[in-house]
Design brief:
single chain, 254 residues, alpha/beta, Trna Endonuclease, Chain: A, domain 1, 2 domains, 7-stranded mixed sheet, 10 helices, 44% helix, 20% strand, globular
């Protein structure tokens, strides 16, 4: 499907009636995708639903499809085609790419880590869009956290680079973004680590650098105690390790 599907903002029966049959079916498909609630990747789903179609969208589409006498099989066929072709949000949740798994697990670990530190969060936004104070345009942030009294904002970048260390250029770009969105603090999370120049830049700007990766059950970290080693050997799922300098925290994949 080469044609780009356009989302609608004004969800009402009159608006749906103005759409061509092809556009209506596409709109129905997007409404179903937006309202799909699968357990895996719940942070992403919450954000997707918040920005996507409202709860009443599918009911409105069902009534309009009945009025037009459009078989629901046509809608289902297009929904399946988009999912199997990897073009829909549903396909990412059914078989998430590795980078998406990394982002979701890293985000959950960061939230737990922040709360362990005694910070009470009143806003958690995964894959957030923040309007820049300087650019006046939306800037994407992998994780945006807010705490009240006094209000603090925390922007988190989660990058699963297959190889290589995070460069100074990427750290400078992150600092520019932090300045634009007026975040109080920035956290950068990656798998393989950082170039020395990137570490120096982060230290100058007060950016917290962390690494996050799956623990190798055959080669457990030396800082695990006997109980943790036993739990690791018996664990059914993955165990992830979040590291900051010499400190480490372990999180089970959920």
């Amino acid at each position: 499907m080469n044609r780009k599907i356009k989302r609608i903002n004004n969800w009402n029966p009159d608006k749906l009636k103005t759409l061509s049959e092809e556009d209506f079916i596409d709109t129905f498909v997007l409404a179903i995708e937006d309202r799909t609630n699968l357990k895996h990747g719940d942070l992403a789903i919450d954000n997707k639903i918040k920005r996507g179609a409202p709860p009443e969208s599918t009911d409105l589409c069902l009534k309009e499809a009945e009025r037009r006498k459009i078989p629901l099989a046509l809608v289902a066929e297009k929904l399946v085609k988009r999912a199997t072709a990897g073009k829909s949000f549903i396909s990412n949740l059914m078989a998430p790419p590795n980078w998406r798994k990394f982002e979701i697990n890293a985000a959950k670990a960061i939230i737990k880590w922040v709360e362990i530190d005694g910070i009470k969060l009143n806003k958690i936004d995964f894959d957030a869009r923040i309007v820049g104070k300087i650019t006046k345009s939306e800037r994407q942030v992998d994780l945006w956290l807010e705490a009240p009294n006094p209000r603090q904002t925390l922007a988190v970048e989660c990058k699963d680079y297959e190889s290589g260390l995070v460069s100074v250029e990427k750290m400078e770009a992150f600092h520019t973004k932090l300045t634009d969105i007026a975040a109080n603090k920035g956290l950068y999370v990656t798998k393989n680590g950082y170039q020395r120049s990137a570490e120096a830049t982060a230290e100058y700007y007060g950016i917290v650098l962390l690494t996050f990766d799956v623990v190798d059950k055959n080669k457990p970290p030396k800082d695990l105690n006997e109980k943790q080693r036993l739990e690791l050997s018996l664990a059914q799922g993955n165990l992830w390790c979040l590291r900051h300098k010499e400190s480490a925290w372990y999180f089970s994949e959920t």
